[in-house]
Amino acid sequence: MPDQIAPAELFAHDPSHFLRRGPGRETFAYEAPGGQRLIIKRYTRSPRLAQAEFDCLRRLGEAGLAVPRALELVKSRRGGLVIMEEVLHQSDLRQRLQEFPSEARGRLDEVLALTLGLHGRGWHHRDLYLDHFIVSEAGCLVLIDFGRARQTRWLRRRWLVKDLAALLYSTPRGVGPRLRLRFLAAYLDGRGITARRERRWWARAVAAKAQRMAAHTPRGGVTWVNGLEVVN
Q1: Are both 68 and 117 inside the same structural domain?
Q2: Structurally, how many domains does the chain consist of?
Q3: pLDDT digits (tens, 9 = 90+) for 163-220
Q4: CA 222 to CA 216: how far, in whole Å?
Q5: By three-state DSSP, how is residue 54 classified?
Q6: Are residue 80 and residue 97 in the same domain, yes or no?
Q7: Which of 61, 85, 109 is the last residue of a domain?
Q8: What is the pTM of this model?
């Protein structure tokens, strides 16, 4: 715990605004004594969830992935706190590409490396939207928000499909279909998936899941979802 911060104060702290807020969890910035700015993720229902996110950040950080540095875990009967270093950033990747879609090609390798690194270590994010890739002040991508991430010995394909579909769904329309397909092809290469039939299955599964995320289910024929073909 950073010096002179009382856990009870953080549990009771009422910030002027939240960075992110959802059922049972809320994230806010906090200026500690001495001027250090921290990011606090406060779980209000279960200390187990705070423990899971803290462990995830620690393990991925130790493996060299660009994630926020977890400083401390605090648990109580009413929930838990994950205390992290603040990552100074300009925007998230979705916002950035909405404004500058031409930058997508230059970001592809970074998103690919983070996604493969995550999945290759047995983790699935479960909220892998471009909103959760922030562009640091140094210009590098940092992956955040691991509140729902889980690690399993054998990753089910449906969890990987969900992560890939979230990336596809959250990609701004200004990013062309060729680049989207190039990303998926590079991901499958990185996972050692080379059989044409299997690659086609992945393309259709990812596109169909992205389609469901958009709450749009076509009644028949061939539909294009962000550059991937879905046959119904």
Answers
A1: no
A2: 2
A3: 999 999 999 999 999 999 999 999 999 999 999 999 999 999 999 999 999 875 443 3
A4: 13
A5: helix
A6: no
A7: 85
A8: 0.87
Q: pLDDT tens for residues 123-155?
A: 999 999 999 999 999 999 999 999 999 998 888
Q: In 3-state terms, what secondary structure has residue 173?
A: coil
Range of the domain at 107: 89-226
Does residue 205 fall inside a structural domain? yes
Q: List strand residue ranges (DSSP E) for the chain, in order.
A: 20-22, 25-31, 37-43, 70-76, 79-85, 89-92, 123-124, 133-136, 141-143, 150-151, 222-225, 228-231
Rg (CA), the chain: 19
Same-domain check for residues 16 and 129: no
Domain end point (choices 47, 66, 85): 85
Same domain, 52 and 139: no
Which residue type occupies 108? L
DSSP 69: P
Number of Cβ within a 10 Å radius of residue 180? 22
3-state helix, strand, coil in the chain (%, to 5): 40, 25, 35
